[in-house]
Amino acid sequence: MERVPMTPDGFKKITEELDRLLKEERPQNIKDIATARAHGDLSENAEYAAAREKQSFLEGRIKELQSKVAMAQVIDPSKIKGDKISFGAKVKLFDLDTDEEKIFFLVGPDEADVKTGKISVTSPVGKALLGKVVGDEAIIKAPARTFSYEVLDIIFE
Q1: Domain locations in the chain?
Q2: Which residues are 147's β-sheet partners?
Q3: Dihedral of CA 78/83/88/94: which sign?
Q4: Which residues have C-beta within 8 Å of that of residue 98, sequence separation ≥ 6?
């Protein structure tokens, strides 16, 4: 079983969701199933079917989150030292094609969110940036086009 890198914030979000599902949503779902079952004929009971479907979703999500927690390797970026891009780095880049500055935060696959600039270390962009130092050029080949970035700054916070 391979460990998955995760920031403390990402780990906290996953454990909070798991806690909420176990302590709030699962017990409520059990009550919903009991209430729907009390309404009689289960073969034509839409409330019962919906509650059972939700139960299936909840149990699947709980198992998924428990697996993520078990495989997580929590790494605090503020404790990382170095001048190379690695997991947890906040990277300031200069797009050589559009002359724009971009900031990416390299995180684990479960935390990636392109809208907020969080890029997975396993993504094509993340892989292309790993190991680079200030002044290096990173070339990312995407299906639509090739991106060229110059590394301006690397921050671990």
Answers
A1: 4-74, 77-156
A2: 140
A3: positive
A4: none
- Amino acid identity of residue 143, one-letter, is P
Of 80, 142, 90, 98, nearest to 118 by C-alpha is 90
Q: What are phi and psi of 79, to 5 degrees?
A: -95, 0
Tokens 């989150």, residue located: 65
1 band by pLDDT with thresholds 50, 70 and 90: low
CATH 1.10.287.180 is right for the domain spanning 4-74: yes
- 100-107, strands of its sheet edge to edge: 118-120, 100-107, 89-95, 146-156, 137-141
Query: Quick one: fold of 77-156?
Result: Chitinase A; domain 3 (3.10.50)
- 53: pLDDT strictly greater than 80: yes
Strands 4-6 and 72-74: parallel
Cα separation, 112 vs 106, whole angstroms: 8
The pLDDT value given to residue 37: 85
Report the distance separating Cα 115 and Cα 119, nearest Å: 9
From CA 55, how far away is CA 71, in angstroms rounded?
A: 24
